[in-house]
C-alpha cells in the first residue's frame, strides 16, 4: 500500500527519523575502550527522565516484562507477600508473574475502567501491623483500559500508615509521556520499556531503583541470572555490560533522551495531555463512551473507546488496518471486542493524530456504527485551534473569516525572508 502506515497503537510508537538515523550504525566492539563514552552518560541521563537524583538506572536488553521481573527478583524472596490491584490486562500480567515466581499476592480486584484503589491499598496496609507486605505493585497507566492512577496518592497511603513496603511502579506507558516524579513520590522501583514514550523500537527494559530497594539486594532470595542487579552494577560501574548489549538501541536511546530534554519534560507532558484531550473531544462528538469511568482516570497516552452494543471492536480494527493502513489497539482479555484503542504517545503532533481520528471515523462507518464523518475531526480541530501549543508560544490574534492578510511592509518582508 502506498504511503506510510498510520501507527496508533499504544506501543510500539513512531520512531523519529533522528532516532532511526542515530541507530543506523556499523557494529562496534562493546568491550572497546571507547564504549563507556556511550554507555556511562546514559545511566545519568535516564535519571533525569525518571526525575531522581539518588536512584540507579539499569538498562536490560529486554522489554517492560523483563523490567517487571528484575524489580521483583532483586528485592524479594520466595513466599514474600505483595499487594496489587488488578484493573486491566497489564496489571493482571504483573500479578501473574509475581505468583509464578513464588510470591504471595494479595489481589485487589477492581472494575476495568477504574483506576488503582488507593483507599483499599491503604486499608490493607493499615491492617498489616506485622508488616508482612513487602511490596506494593502499582500500575501507573493501565494501557488496556486507558486509565491513569495516582502514584503520589499511593505514596501518601504508605506514609500515613507508616508502612515500610517497597513501592514498585509500572510506568511502561507513562514514563516520558505523563508526569512521573520518582524521588518526590518515593518510588522504590520504576519500570518502563523502550517502545513507548522513549520513542524506540521494543528491546530495552529499563528499571530505576531507589537506594532503599538496592539495599535489599543481598537478602533477596528469588532466583535471578539475566536480570541480576549485582552483575549489572559491577559492569556498569566501568561503563560496560555483563553481556552483549544492543549497540543500535543504546545509540537510539541517547538520541531519544536528547530529544525529550530538548523539548523539556514539562512540555512533553503538556503536549501529550493536549493531544489526548483533543482525542477525547472527538470521542464525545461521536457520541461514544470511554472505558475510563471518570475524568480523574483519563490517560494522556491511550484512549480506549467502547463500541456500541451489537458491534465488535475487532472489526473496526481490522477494517482500519486493511482498508486504510491504520493500526489501532485491540481490546484485551475481558474487554476483547468491546473496545478499540487509540494510542497517542511518543513522537506525535496534531496533524498526525487528525489522520488517525479521520481513519477511525471511516472504519466505524464501514462496519455500520452511526457516526457522522468529520464530526470527531472537527471537535479535535476546534480544541487544538483554541488552545496554545506548548511548542509555540507565539500569539496569533483571531482574524475574520473573510479578512485579507495585511500587506507586509518592506521591513517585515525582509525580516521574514531572513528566517
Describe the structure.
The chain is α/β, with parallel strands linked by helices. It has 2 domains: about 250 residues, Type I PLP-dependent aspartate aminotransferase-like (Major domain) (Aspartate Aminotransferase, domain 2); about 120 residues, Aspartate Aminotransferase, domain 1. Helices cover about 40% and strands about 15% of the residues. Helix 5 packs parallel to helix 6 and helix 12 runs antiparallel to helix 13. It is globular, with a radius of gyration of 23 Å. The two termini are about 35 Å apart.
Strands, helices and their partners?
Layout: E1 6-8, H1 17-23, H2 36-50, E2 56-60, H3 64-73, E3 81-86, H4 89-100, E4 104-109, H5 118-127, E5 133-139, E6 141-142, E7 147-148, H6 151-160, E8 166-170, E9 189-193, E10 205-209, H7 211-214, H8 229-236, H9 247-263, H10 265-286, E11 289-290, E12 302-306, H11 313-324, E13 326-330, E14 339-343, H12 350-366, H13 375-386, H14 410-417
Parallel strand pairs: 1-13, 3-4, 3-5, 5-8, 8-9
Antiparallel strand pairs: 2-10, 6-7, 9-10, 11-12, 12-14, 13-14
- Give the beta-strand count: 14
Poorly predicted ranges: 401-419
Distance between the termini: 37 Å
Q: What's the overall geometry?
A: globular
Task: Summarize this structure briefly.
The protein has 419 residues and is of the alpha/beta class. The chain has 14 helices and 14 strands. β6 (141-142) and β7 (147-148) form a beta hairpin.
List the defining traits of the structure above:
about 425 residues; Aspartate Aminotransferase, domain 2; 2 domains; 7-stranded mixed sheet; 5-stranded mixed sheet; 14 strands; about 15% strand
